[in-house]
Write a structure and sequence with these properties.
Length: 453
């Protein structure tokens, strides 16, 4: 039996080389073997059109390929359409032959999914900004063609439109494997149409896009100014819609704002459900980062995630990109997990300290609190080590974060010290940071506190 099944897989692979890609996907890949007995193979076609197409155009190709694959076991083949196959299976007698039983229930060999398996509904973080579009997308995936048709999703770059399209596709493939789902960008749709005109194969193009159960098109705004492609898509839309085939479209704008699109197309888009994706709020951004860390198994501490969520409020794509860059930086530094310093060091161009909140007094307060000494002792002329080291660190941090403050002014702030003492303190700490891990860690801790202001 295993050899028979292996031969069927070999047959599909061999036939793929004999058919144009679109014809193979439409007519050959969905074939189901019903019976292999006494050298005779009975096969179910997905519909009457597929049966007619194969017999009319590829009868000899089929026959020769079957001979090559099955060898002397093969005698003949019979192709049935869907209704004929139902009668055939109803009339088939129970047989102890395991090959017969297995082939009656064998599913067609499916092509590799075109949907990114990372983009699922479970992996989509739901917040106030997207809860309604998420619910609509799930409803479409669970019952395609029954409501919310068409579903039109719009929003800015990187907010999750493509994620939702792939999630819909993945969900339908999982729960309705017999449904034909087509996902394509508007650019790809346009290029396919242009190619069909160039090669005089417009019917091939129409077969590809109109013989589907669900059509998912990303970035439909690219139809703007493409009048001929708009015309073709209008008829494709109508053809699918009248047969209750699900259509889902995404765009960067509300259909009302696609001013250079034909009114009849905008009218079609507005006839269904229109949902917008908004920029995620802080809570959603943090949840997205936590979900990404969980999925990718990144090592990042919570404070780093909080800082990214606080500072990056543009879109999800940039949020995840920054997280990836921070983790990469942490790996280069051979750290066990990424922390706030990785956020600051690797993304200095995006995360800056609020200088208006930073003064000499504020830095000294932070240092005094960190070392658990009084502010008066920190600024005094006491020479005890417990005060000298924090004092020098405070001077170094002031020079680091407030470079415009004159050295003489810093000296006056610390009870009238001259500028040479300030230079000595600054240089001393700089050397110690390089030489001693303890001093480096203290500096990093204080830097983190200051950046969080």
């Amino acid at each position: 039996m295993d050899q028979i099944i292996s031969n069927w897989q070999t047959l599909i692979d061999a036939l793929e080389k004999e058919f144009p890609a679109v014809s193979f996907d439409l007519w050959v890949r969905p074939l189901k073997p019903l019976l292999f007995k006494n050298g005779n193979i009975t096969i179910e076609a997905p519909n009457a059109a597929a049966k007619t197409f194969i017999i009319k155009n590829y009868l000899n190709v089929f026959d020769n390929t079957l001979k090559e694959v099955f060898g002397d076991e093969y005698q003949s083949f019979k192709l049935l359409d869907t209704e004929e196959a139902i009668d055939f299976k109803n009339n088939i007698k129970e047989d102890s032959n395991e090959t017969l039983k297995h082939l009656v229930n064998l599913e067609p060999i499916k092509e590799q999914s075109e949907f990114n398996k990372k983009y699922t509904f479970d992996g989509f973080v739901v917040g106030n900004c997207n809860q309604f579009v998420y619910a609509a997308s799930r409803a479409v995936a669970e019952n395609p063609g029954t409501k919310f048709n068409p579903l039109f999703i719009y929003g800015g770059v990187g907010l999750g439109k493509t994620h939702l399209l792939h999630a819909i596709g993945n969900e339908i493939e999982k729960n309705n494997p017999n449904k034909i789902v087509c996902y394509v960008t508007c650019e790809k749709f346009t290029n396919d149409y242009i190619e069909s005109l160039r090669t005089n194969q417009i019917n091939k193009f129409r077969n590809k896009y109109r013989n589907v159960d669900i059509l998912l098109i990303d970035d439909i705004q690219f139809l703007v100014k493409k009048l001929s492609t708009q015309e073709e898509f209008f008829h494709t839309f109508n053809d699918l819609y009248q047969y209750n085939k699900q259509i889902v479209l995404t765009s960067d704008r509300n259909p009302k704002e696609l001013t250079e699109l034909e009114d009849r197309l905008k009218s079609r888009f507005q006839s269904g459900l229109i949902q917008d994706l908004q920029s995620p709020d802080y809570e959603t951004r943090l949840a997205i980062l936590e979900k990404k860390v969980e999925i990718e198994q990144y090592k990042v501490n919570h404070d780093a995630l909080v800082l990214i969520a606080e500072r990056v409020d543009t879109n999800i794509r940039e949020l995840e990109g920054i997280l990836q860059k921070v983790c990469f930086h942490s790996t280069l530094m051979s750290k066990t997990e990424a922390d706030v310093l990785d956020v600051m060091d690797s993304l200095n161009e995006k995360i800056e300290t609020d200088k208006s909140a930073l003064t000499l007094d504020k830095i000294c307060e932070i240092v005094a609190d960190y070392y658990n000494i009084s502010l008066d002792n920190l600024k005094s002329k006491k020479r005890s080590k417990e005060f000298v080291e924090p004092r020098q660190m405070a001077i170094y941090l002031i020079c680091e974060f407030l470079p415009d403050v004159p050295l003489a002014s810093i000296g006056m702030f610390f009870n009238g010290r001259d500028h040479t003492t300030i230079i000595h303190s600054r240089d001393k700490v700089e050397q110690n940071i390089k030489a001693y891990t303890k001093i480096k860690n203290q500096f990093n801790d204080l830097k983190t506190i200051i950046y969080r202001l």
